[in-house]
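I have been asked to look over a protein record a colleague put together. The record follows directly below this note.
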Amino acid sequence: MIPFLAQDAVCTLNQLAALNEADPQGVLEGRLDLDRAAIAGLSLGGAITAEACRMEPRFRACLVMDVFMSADVVREGLK
């Protein structure tokens, strides 16, 4: 379940990257510094944050609070 939910964070980052390139409303276009993308989560959100950081190296900072770590995250670490 956690990897599935972590895909939402990756999808959000992908959408932000697309809007940074071409925002139909012009609000975010060229304004985002995605080289410094960060994510944070508490409890279940923390587990999702850790998994998202393990899966997606574009997340440069990860704040994981009050969470049980999955075996994959413990074994592989964050990217």
Observations:
- The helical segments are 2-21, 44-55, 71-76.
